[in-house]
Amino acid sequence: MYASVFASLLALQAATGFATSLSKRGVDYYDPNANGGSMLDNAGDGYGEPLNVIISGLSSPAVLTEDGAINFARSIGFSEECFGFHLGGAQSANLGDGNGSVNQTIELREDYGSSSVGTCLESLVGGNHFRIYVQNGTEADSGALFLAVSKEEDVSDSHTIVPDGYDIGRNDLVSAAVGQTSFGGVSYTTTAQNVTGLLTPGSTGVNHGIAVDGIVTVLTVTIN
Fold first, then answer.
1. Is there a domain that residue 110 lies in?
2. 11, 84, 128, 147: least CB-packed within 10 angstroms?
3. What's in the keyword line of the UniProt record (predicted)?
4. Structurally, how many domains does the chain consist of?
5. The pLDDT of residue 222
6. What CA–CA distance (Å, rounded) separates 13 from 19?
7. Burial (CB count <10 Å: 0-12, 13-18, 19+), residue 1
8. H helices within the chain, ranges in order?
9. d(CA 127, CA 149)
10. Which of 196, 192, 167, 164 is nearest to 177 (CA)?
11. Would residue 54 count as lying in a domain?
12. In the chain, which ranges are E strands?
């Protein structure tokens, strides 16, 4: 019986990329650049989108699970995609953890105040959204969630990123997250620290040629 449960947990972890254990890690994150990774994901044609927010591996362990990440996202105004339909292709990232290039685990969109149908509105009128990548390989198992955050245009503009949309998307998400938030009976306290040196400023290699300021914001999310 225990063997089958353990096998199921391993299968769940492999399928989702998220932690299946609630054990606490001991580091905020590992720098992907230090082990062959990148702070740009792979958006195709040699370009990428910046991983401009990190949810620290020192956050409450439950936040770093798939259900926990979604619940926290809902507490700051994001939710799953409209009726579960994904618009656009999945992007991948190499977080330097030994897993190589791995597809995004999930994509979440601004929900305009409704966690059930609000992301359908975002799909029409545009807004903020982010992709999640989990740093959990054996070579750098921080458990941290790396987020590629950006603000996009409406559907008539094919959801392209607004001017300065990577920095704007990051700033809007951080503003919503810092302090006290709650959803589904779970309350969070979130602090933020801006970090330089992980992401190169400018537009070299950045999707759509949109320059970034090089700041990555690290969020530590604690369940109260």
1. yes
2. 84
3. Signal
4. 1
5. 98
6. 6
7. exposed
8. 2-16, 66-75, 118-125, 165-177
9. 11
10. 192
11. yes
12. 53-55, 78-80, 92-94, 101-103, 106-110, 127-134, 145-152, 179-183, 186-195, 216-223
At 82 the three-state DSSP class reads: helix
pLDDT at 38 over 50: yes
pTM of the model: 0.85
Phi, psi of 65 (to 5 degrees): -90, 165
Tokens of 224: 């109260």
Cα–Cα distance for residue pair 93/146, rounded to 1 Å: 9
CB neighbours of residue 83 within 10 Å: 10
pLDDT at 7: 39
From first CA to last CA, the distance across the chain in angstroms is 34
Percent of the chain with pLDDT over 70: 76
Residue 29 has pLDDT above 90, yes or no: yes
Instruction: Confirm whether 17 is domain-assigned.
Output: no
Are residues 39 and 33 in contact, defined by beta-carbon separation less than 8 angstroms? yes
How many whole angstroms separate alpha carbon 156 and alpha carbon 163?
16
Please check whether residue 219 is in contact with residue 56, taking contact to mean a CB–CB distance below 8 angstroms.
yes
- Tokens standing for 166? 């990577």
What is the DSSP annotation of 145-168? Answer: EEEEEEEE--GGGTTPBPTTHHHH
Q: Minimal CA–CA distance to 149: which of 165, 164, 160?
A: 165
Q: What is the span of the domain harbouring residue 44?
A: 22-223
Rounded CA-CA distance 79/70 in Å is: 7
Tokens describing residue 203: 């537009």
Size of the chain, expressed as the number of residues it contains? 224
**6, part of any domain:** no
